[in-house]
Write a structure and sequence with these properties.
84 residues; mainly alpha
Amino acid sequence: MKKILMHGIYIVIIAFFVVFANIKASEAQKSVQTAEEALSKVEVAQADAVKQAKISEDLATEKIKALYSAQKIKDELEACKGKK
């Protein structure tokens, strides 16, 4: 009888550790999922940043072109005023 009782206690202890390990594995899986979601958000933010940088670069290029055109027109006006 004592032997059966000891085996029962061992089984309960082993079952406790199995359940405990399962809970910890589930928590770890949730942590991994949260990390993957955060990584996904970071990747989206990075892609948006790259798009914004491209837009800024394009706007800077357009500004340089506009300044060049304005200076060219200004020079032409000065040249016309000089001829009169």
